[in-house]
Amino acid sequence: MSFRWGIAGTGAIARGFADALGRLPDAELVAVGSRRQPTADEFGERFGVPRARRHGSYEELAADDGVDLVYVATPTSHHHPHTLLFLQAGRGVLCEKPFALDAAQAAEMVATARAEGRFLMEAMWSRFLPAYVSIRELVAAGALGTVLAVDGDFGFRLPTTPGERLFDPAQGGGALLDLGVYPVSLASMLLGEPDQVSAVGQLGETGVDEHVAVLMGYRSGAVALAKASLRASLGCTGRISGTTGSIELPAFMHCPDELIVRGPAGTEHLHLPAALDSAGIGEADTGSVEPHDRAGGGLHHQIRHVHERLSAGHLDSDVMPLAESVSVMRTLDAVRAQIGLRYPTPELAFPRPAGENSPAPGDVQKEEATQP
Ligand SMILES: NC(=O)c1ccc[n+]([C@@H]2O[C@H](COP(=O)([O-])OP(=O)(O)OC[C@H]3O[C@@H](n4cnc5c(N)ncnc54)[C@H](OP(=O)(O)O)[C@@H]3O)[C@@H](O)[C@H]2O)c1
Asked: What is the pLDDT of residues 37-68, one digit of tens each?
């Protein structure tokens, strides 16, 4: 069986994803949706989408009955409305990270998928890479003892470019949601939702956070630290520390090609290229993606997972569960509340459903926004 994919958006990651689809024998790129017909045509021409299925609007893509699954590759501000659009039109959805602008949007996306009986998953591609699979296996096997600390940072020095996605509040820009979500999600994968969130950060001239640090605390005694920046080149590394060992994630921590595992028996370097897998897919780079779209070399892992889950009759993922996508957004909400980061969408709140262990803004240790 072949899965018929449509792609919503024609930007950088959409191109990487189209490349990744081309690596899988059971995936077909059958349609694309764009705000404008010329961009849909250009993208369709490049990736072999049939002429009639190059849609000049997202609504037309949603109405295309020949599409099983839509990959939402639009700016973060549009993940919520576009996911709802495609789910309500009867399509399954793989939605780029960060899943939404806030937890309330994320929860509505999940509720809509359930109501419509359609597949939904956050495209947190790191989770499906060989290195991240190994991290979960090593931790589950007790190779580190009890995990007590997770550290990660991700940042680049970029010129301020108003209107560009990363610097545009209207597109959900900023370091936290775009880059910080990776180390926060890594901490969530290993430690769950934090019981305490404490953040410091600085907003830049366009109104988005350009430099932010997040300290997460857990009742177990574990701690996690995530940093993200658009103003400074951070190490882009990660580290998981336990009572008997540690794992280092060299740059880039969201798609490492190796892990350095330290334990009582010594140090081991595990070679786990993000682009490769046991089937050898990815060995030959097609060269059709830009250097920054190195993601194209590893995005196929998450796509294969989607296919496997659907083939097994599931409408969600057990590796990137929907409840966890919502809980990561709750953590990011708590950070946004503390650093004063607001997006120009009036209904955005900082919710905490009753019984959840995430802190309400009043519970968290407040810090003044500060200079880096
Ligand atoms: N997994 C990863 O490694 C990875 C890497 C980069 C980005 N991302 C995520 O993917 C999403 C897209 O990032 P990107 O780097 O691909 O962005 P991008 O290059 O700016 O592309 C976004 C696309 O969204 C469409 N779009 C729809 N409404 C828009 C609007 N109002 N303003 C601007 N564009 C609009 C545009 O396509 P049309 O013109 O065709 O409508 C545009 O090309 C973000 O949420 C980001 O966090 C993930």
From this structure: 999 999 999 999 999 999 999 999 999 999 99
Options 3.60.10.10, 3.40.50.720, 1.10.357.10, 3.30.360.10; CATH for 127-339 is 3.30.360.10
Write down the CATH superfamily of domain 3-124: NAD(P)-binding Rossmann-like Domain (3.40.50.720)
Question: Contact at 8 Å (CB) between 74 and 168?
Answer: no
Domain boundary assignment for the chain: 3-124, 127-339
Q: Identify which of 230, 139, 232, 142 has the alpha carbon closest to the alpha carbon of residue 187.
A: 139
Domains 3-124 and 127-339 share a fold: no
CB 275 within 8 A of CB 255: no
Query: What pLDDT, in 10s, does the model give residues 315-349?
Result: 999 999 999 999 999 999 999 999 999 999 755 65
Helix residue spans in 281-353 (DSSP H): 300-311, 322-339
Just list the catalytic residues: 97
Q: Is 11 in the pocket of ligand 1 (CB under 6 A)?
A: yes
Which ligand 1 atom lies nearest to the CA of residue 32? 40
Q: Kindly state if the Cβ of 74 falls inside 6 Å of ligand 1.
A: yes
Whether ligand 1 lies within 6 angstroms of the CB of 170 is answered as no
Q: Ligand 1 in contact with 219 (CB < 6 A)?
A: no
Give the whole-angstrom CA distance, residue 109 versus residue 114.
9
74, 158, 293: which to mutate for ligand 1, most atoms within 8 A of CB?
A: 74
Q: What's the predicted TM-score (pTM) here?
A: 0.91
Q: Which residue's alpha carbon is nearest to atom 15 within ligand 1? A: 12
Task: With both helix axes pointing from N to C terminus, report the angle between 103-116 and 322-339 in degrees, rounded to the nearest 10.
Answer: 160
